[in-house]
Amino acid sequence: MYFRHCNGASYKHVSRAVERSMASAYRMWGSVAPRTAAGPPLVRYLTGATAEHPVYDAIVAGGGMVGSAMACALGTHREFEGKHILLLEAGPRRVVDSLPQVHSNRVSTLSPASKQLLSAVGAWERIEAMRAWPVNRMQVWDGVSGSMIKFQSNEEKEWNMAHVVENNVTVTALTHCLEQSVRDRVRVLYNTSITDLQLPSHTTESGAVPLTSITLNNGQQLYTRLLVAADGFYSLIRRASALNYITWDYEQTAIVATLLLEEGDNNNVAWQRFLPSGPIAMLPLSARSSSLTWMNPPDRTAQLMAMTESDFTQAVNSAFVDMYQCSDVVTMPVQLLNSFITNITSESCSVEQLPPRVSTVDPPSRATFPLALGHCVHYVKPRLAIVGDAAHRVHPLAGQGVNLGFGDVACLINHLQDVVREGKDFGSITHLLRYETERQRHNAPTMALCDGLHRLYTTERAPIVLMRSLGLSLINALNPIKARLMRHAAV
Fold this sequence. Notes:
- By secondary structure, the chain is an alpha/beta fold.
- Helices cover 36% and strands 25% of the residues.
- The strands form four sheets. Strands 7, 8, 15, 16, 17, 18, 19, 20 and 23 form a nine-stranded mixed β-sheet that branches.
- β21 (380-381) and β22 (384-386) form a beta hairpin.
- The longest helix is centred in the last third of the chain and has 29 residues, at 429-457.
- The protein starts with a strand and ends with a helix.
- Residues 1-50 have low confidence and may be disordered.
């Protein structure tokens, strides 16, 4: 696989008369030629290009949740009518024709902002028709000191904190949108990847920026005014573009599994307990099932994965209730603060409710994945924007991974709409830099918070345990701060 930056001469468009005649001549050719809503392929060619080298306004690389949402948004908004959009997916078409009774172990906690984006492209209605479960409350507590924080949805505004949705359900809904709602405006190629990439490294004498050229795994060459990289953690486009990427390993592994519960009443609470070895979280999937994410050092993860289903179930239940030894240096100040807060607010600072007990785990659902942090110093280059996991990888303790990606999509779409309204080049670096600035201001603090919480809670040193416990109890008592945290997580 070979990628390089383009140093070639500038490209010029042929006349519209030639364009029409060439489009007509190649009407029967159409594996990737862009189409208008009217029907036949309509391609703008560059001097020296042939029918195998069509020009797209935007090519999205990566057909996962974030990439598919990007393509759907480009095909949905009226500002992009007439634009030629292509979505490339390296894997096969992935849809769920009928949902199994047991939930998948790959789920995401979708924020209100993510729901709004999916609603705008017509995917949310299908997601709800398939399977989505609301989260109305969240409880997070320290496994050592017992300090806690609670978040509650706004019942008066009928606002849920989040929805837990299986990833394959989200992809299926977006695929339905691509194949029906925007099929005349977005082309999709499966089993197709980029093997060669030429990014513009200069401007022409007139100030124009040459187009980006890509070569597919079938040998075909395409041009685009904007390449959107949504190709995941190990993004080939990011690496080929020489974008600086900061990353480090947490030396932790997460276990995911689908849990079946003993009780099925009011399962709408997200539970998370910080243990010295790493956090354990349980998210509601239905009245009688939840999704587990349990983070541990690799050796402890190996022990848990080797357990029988019965022993693993017992380990999960114990992890939510077992008490850890805590120094009086910590317990006494925390108890004093909690008593003071209770006297002032008339609200108890203790854990009011424990998670429902797990009856069993779905055996095939147990799986692991390594944890790491990664962040691109820059999200854009001329005619290139990266979104989602290709731009940032965050610790899953706050459930913000795909929400950050959907936020990237919504932000980039907003700035591309400005490009069209202002009559600018679709790959305008000025507007791409505005996208980068806006998202960096949101993503960087979110990632820093998640990283800081991970480091803060993976220690049993008494001074640090005391500091984090007092802080958590204080934040729980200060509703304006909690409201601000919820607003940040919701966008």
